[in-house]
Amino acid sequence: MPGHRTKGFCASAAALALCAMLAGCGGSGESVGGGKVVLRYTWWGNPDRAERTEQAVALFEKQHPNIQVRTSFSAYEAYKQKLAVQASGGDAPDVMQLDYRQIDQYASGGVLLDLAEQKAVLRTGEIDPGLLATGRLDDTQYAIPQGRGTETVAYDVKAWKASGVPLPGKSWTWSEWADTMRALAKKTGKPGATDPGQSEDCFEVWLRGRGKSLYTEDGGLGFTADDLTRWWTFTDKLRREGAVSPAEQTTQLDGSVENTPLGRGEAVSDANWDAPASGFLALIPTGVALAPMPSGEDGTPGQYFKPSMFLGVGAGTNHPKEAAQLVDFLINDEQAARILGASRGIPVNESIREETASQLKDFDKTIAEYQSSLEGSLKDPPQAPPSGDNALQATFQRDYDQVSYERMSPREAAENYVTEAKAELRS
Amino acid sequence: MTTTDIPAPATRKPGATTTPKRRPRRESQGPAWVFLSPWVLGAIVLTLLPMAVSLYLSFTDYDLFNPPRWVGLRNYVQMFTEDPRYWRSVVTTLTYVVIAVPLQLALALAVALALKSMKRGKGFYRSAFYAPSLLGASMSIALVWRAVFNDGGTVDNLLGTGGWVNKPGWALLAVALLTVWQFGAPMVIFLAGLQQIPAELYEAAAVDGAGKWRQFLSVTVPMLSPVLFFNLVLQTIQAFQVFTPAFAIGAGKGGPADSTLVYTLYLYDRGFVASHMGYASAMAWVLLIVIGVVTAVLFRTSRSWVFYASEGDR
Amino acid sequence: MTTTTTPVVRKPVAWGRIALHVGCLAALLVMLYPLAWLLATSLKPADEVIASLDLLPSRLEWSNYSTALDGVNDVSIWRLLSNSLLIAGGAVLGNVISCSLAAYAFARLRFRFRGPLFAFMIATIMLPHHAVLIPQYIIFNQLGLVNTYWPLILPKFLATEAFFVFLIVQFMRGLPRELEEAARIDGCGPFRSFFKVVLPLTRPALITTAIFTFIWTWNDFFTQLIYLFDPDKFTLTLALRSFVDASSTSAFGPMFALSVIALLPIVLFFLAFQRLLVEGMASSGLKG
Description:
Order of helices and strands of chain C: HHHHHHHHHHHHHHH
Strand order of the largest sheet of chain B: 1-2
CATH topology of chain B: MetI-like fold
CATH architecture of chain B: Orthogonal Bundle
CATH architecture of the largest domain in chain C: Orthogonal Bundle
Radius of gyration of chain C: 24 Å
Low-confidence stretches of chain B: 1-25
Oligomer: heterotrimer
CATH class of the largest domain in chain C: Mainly Alpha
Organism (chain A): Streptomyces muensis
Number of domains of chain B: 1
Structural class of chain C: mainly alpha
Region (Disordered) (chain A): 372-427
Order of helices and strands of chain B: HHEEHHHHHHHHHHHHH
CATH class of chain B: Mainly Alpha
Number of strands of chain B: 2
Number of strands of chain C: 0
Largest sheet of chain C: none
Number of domains of chain C: 2
Keywords (chain A): Signal
CATH superfamily of the largest domain in chain C: MetI-like
Distance between the termini of chain B: 25 Å
Mean pLDDT of chain B: 85
Protein name (chain A): ABC transporter substrate-binding protein
Distance between the termini of chain C: 47 Å
Largest interface: B-C, 111 and 104 residues
Number of helices of chain B: 15
Low-confidence stretches of chain C: 1-9, 280-288
InterPro entries (chain A): Bact_solute-bd_prot1 (IPR050490), SBP (IPR006059)
Shape of chain B: globular
Shape of chain C: globular
CATH superfamily of chain B: MetI-like
Radius of gyration of chain B: 24 Å
């Protein structure tokens, strides 16, 4: 059967040809007919944000008939993975939504365009300089903040009132907060708050209240093992007293409000970011209110207005001007702002913020009022954290688990963390 | 693994002088390559190439964005000597393998045997037992698991053990049970294997006076051994690579207190969360080698207990 | 004792059978409990989805289903469903064809380097896929196939899922050689004996391959996430996750409802094919 040999080769060749054909077919993604510029814009969020974004984008396309915008979105965690794979594969989208923690990595990895080059179409004059600076790295503006948020103590109004403990006022120190939590636990029989020891964000607020910071200007560690030991000793004591949630509750945090002790009805309050706190309302229909984060013992505020998200432009984009136009539209256009509302945090453009404030509804309004009550009293935000922070946020929680499950003393865990953090920041 | 792992003609090569007598060379290699051509193409482009890249990356410092920087064996050295969390993930994974694989296979085999001897309702039971496996480890099922195994959840109420998913000593068991619960795949494979056993063999055994148990040992076990072997090898490999159930139940962090931080979860954490893809690649290759050794051992022992019908009467 | 039980012993088989059924049903009760929980949760109001540890909802929240059926972001549920079906169907076709071809070569044909190549094939199952994700993405990006279904389907046509090759190899090895020998004596080449003799006998393994491929592809989140960009190319599995976003507000209730909806096609697929599994068995095993 000598014929078989040639048959084999023919079949292999045919298979190869087929694959080449498939490859040829698929490659038509980018060029849409009519000479239109096509932009890819990706972001994270939920279906509600998706709907509003689509509307805004449609308006942009109407204003710029030569531009077509293709959007895509996923939930936060999935988005981070997807964007990382895209970017490392050299396939970053033209316009992308970025988190505070991603800026450093994406900028230093050459993924982001210097936006100063597009000053002509991208206006930043109406953004608070301190906030704008968070998107700057080595004096280059890599990203523009799109919304702002801040941390808050969200609480179950009904449960708190029923306990007879006085409601939180305009400010409190960490020790006043701790006493209140103890009182709440005593009166209600359940913890006053989520154990803040697991949260790098809460630690940062506490640290800033003591005049320190998580990271130094040059991306080193801004605190010592002693600082962290003090923090974890503080929270560990509260946990042992039952004033904050036990380890078995705390460990179930997965970022969603539903899985917080407050969301499960196992605690009276929860320290969280203000935007997601709106989710509590669906779980506690009787009412949720926002109180400020505790400050340092001398009244130094630790919380700050943090950009809830940024917009950046891919360094590899073929249409930097059009991409910048889209960013400008999303940040500075009044109609766009009206459509987007507070779905991406309270707008950063100051005149738009004032103008839209009156139109905000429901919990968006609560958040806007909460933020304006803090206006002027907070310090400037720190610059974007170094890229190692992505890993450290999780490490922080892991190391504290060892404390809350009483497998390590606060001192041991803190020493561990500082060692790991130094290694992470060096690499 | 070596060529000797494969029964069948390949092992006979050394005795080349006798081979021609028994098997005259009546087929060319051409047809084999036709059958293999899709696989060869896929293996080269989609498997070998990416594997080679990841092997290279394992010797580099690669943060996903900047070009990889050659660091020699540093990732491997760091893994073995400086990373206690790595070793904890190794212990966690081994524990998981030891719990999940035997439990899942035993359950799958038991149910398959029970169903085989059933005259009526077989289709119903098979579907019902398979149902959990339809779900995968989706986010919804993870939330269900966390509710059922939580403080005050069903398991706590029935057994009084407290929650499992939130206790470091118990959480891994809850993860393993999720895998065991989805025993549909090995069950179906067992069932298919059982059905392949010719009925004549049982009839012959019955004629020889063998009872049920005797039939099981002398007919079912040897005839099922290739399938049993397949399930054992594949479930072991998959157990070493367990990711999704641990990711879903531990809320992506391997909690509580790293108790469900299995190997691939830590690999994912290093590669995609911490952006140390070089380190993650090195972890992947160590895992490959370990699984390779384990599989090779399984293949070697298989020669004493796996029976291939096509070779018995060669 | 023995005397009193004598009348009962007359039908010992029936008792064993009943015990078997009782045992199986009891096991099923435990097995299906989490599924009941899933179903019940899909009807819980928002404040009970996570917080409540009771099986049954306090009231039925049907709006979870209507929200889920609305689809996500202008993409209808039917679109999502047909996208999922297209991918899963393509994957099934690819795996069944390519894996059985390769398996036949490994199980029955002779070629150079068979041993090493087989070992390599098994080894490809062992590398965690996260490690090759980025190189694979780069390859597909170079081919211009990102944001198409090819990265999800093409690998299946190239037998990259060694699990199934190995599965079918094991089945083929279990088949008696005499049938093929006979076919060969009748003048069948390897192609005809593959199609006429081996393939029909391997049917249980092929159906198993089809079922697993369908389910696993259907549930595979990560690959779909990475390769699909346009929302109108999204699948049910992708849509499912978009309901839960930790940075804004989530909708766990609709997510559970959509999980139940997404479960229906795979249940139907399984029910349809598991029946074929029975026929396949009848024709191969018993008469073989």
